[in-house]
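Q: What structure does this chain adopt?
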Amino acid sequence: QVQLVESGGGLVQAGGSLRLSCAVSGRTFSSYDMGWFRQAPGKERGFVVAISRSGSTTVYADSMKGRFTISRDNAKNTVYLQMNSLKPEDTAVYYCAAASGVTGGTPSPLSWKYDFWGQGTQVTVSS
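A:
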């Protein structure tokens, strides 16, 4: 059983920064592509960023490029999301997810390709 636990969410002013963490249980963390998704009130869950198993390849949603950075530490079974220059529209519940399928080295932005999900962490950006 794979479990994902996010942490690091909270309330921050516009222009501020937060670092989210996602700790993954199990022995095969390095065999998963990892992704971050978010869901704002009244909206569908959307893709934020993903990272390949080795950490060598990342894929970003266009609106996050230059502001958000994903990284992973396979020795610690943890993936991180550094969020800078936060905007009120970044307010959402942020979820990490793990994908075990074959991807050819490029992590997917499609939520249905992710097998395991965390419970989410709330990020609120005030104006």
